[in-house]
Amino acid sequence: MKVYYSTNPADVRHYDRKKLRENFLIDNLFEENELKLAYSYEDRIIIGSACPKENPCIMNKESLGSGFTLQNREIGIINIGDSGLVIVDGQAIVLDHKDGLYIGKGKKEIIFKSMDIVSPPKFYINSAPAHKTYPTVKISSLSVKAETQGNLEESNKRKIYKYIYPTMCQSCQLVMGITVLEPNNLWNTMPCHIHSRRTEVYLYCNMDKDHIVFHIMGEPRETKHIVVKNEQAVISPSWSIHSAVGTKRYDIIWSMIGENQDFNDIEPIKRTDLL
Q: Does one domain contain both 91 and 185?
């Protein structure tokens, strides 16, 4: 499991391109027949993927280095591939494309399986520390209502789908969902903001292979960018802005953990204050 350490904004001001990518970019996700996990010291979030094809991917105590898999954790999963199975302590749950799953604290083994090796699933995984056990809940993509934000004039019209959120299912810390940019829109989260009480991770997906996204981060007056390709993720510490512009539309799976689950607990930043 790759480890990403916490960062100090005063130090990040001096990072070059290579060091910025080493500390915040998560690549090499979604490799066939592999469970991939990365551990961040930013609010102790785990980011990962499972891509079963011929072979299942198994998450057990060896994967997370604790007494058993979710001894002190909860997990959220969104499938960005074709239909697959998630088996939670023997209970098989089918996740179709863009279906989600919340698994509460206390489960001992999670197995990811393909239903068709020609069209395998791609499970995106986020895990947060948990202090209480909540029920496992499947979240059908058809049950998640869209919230429209932005407008075409500012190239940021998008739909927000809240999967793991108090209105859908209970969780301790983890909040998770999908942002879908409308056609001919390129910007996400502009005007941007900071949420000092939560870490956020963006997974960029559903991108054409020859297009990229510029992920903008850093302190408002010390901005930096990371060039991101399809199915790469970026860690956003609580002190950093997080915005993006692409060479073509894209989707984002976002996840947040921290002190609260209030989607609107933010500190807005004016565009003209950015440097």
A: no
Residues 146 and 131 placed together within one structural domain of the fold: no
Please write the tens of the pLDDT for every residue from 120-173: 999 999 999 999 999 999 999 999 999 999 999 999 999 999 999 999 999 999
Measured in whole angstroms, how far is the alpha carbon of residue 20 from the centre of its chain? 19
Query: Which of residues 124, 139, 154 is at a domain's end?
Result: 139
208 plus 108 within the same structural domain: no
Q: What total of structural domains would you count in the chain?
A: 2
Among 98, 123, 139, identify where a domain stops. 139
Alpha helices per DSSP H over the chain: 9-12, 17-24, 61-64
Distances (CA, A) of 133 to 77, 107, 124: 17, 10, 22
* Rounded alpha-carbon distances, angstroms, from residue 132 to 104, 135, 172, 174, 175: 8, 10, 7, 12, 15
Distance CA 159, CA 149 (A): 6
189 closest CA partner among 173, 175, 200, 174: 200
Cα 134-138-141 angle, rounded to 5 deg: 135
Q: Looking at residue 57, what is its pLDDT?
A: 97
**Domain for residue 99, yes or no?**
yes
Q: Burial of 139 by CB count in 10 Å (0-12 exposed, 13-18 middle, 19+ buried)?
A: buried
Domain that holds residue 44: 2-10+28-139
pTM greater than 0.90 (yes/no): yes
- Percent of the chain with pLDDT strictly greater than 70: 99
Do 112 and 33 belong to one domain? yes
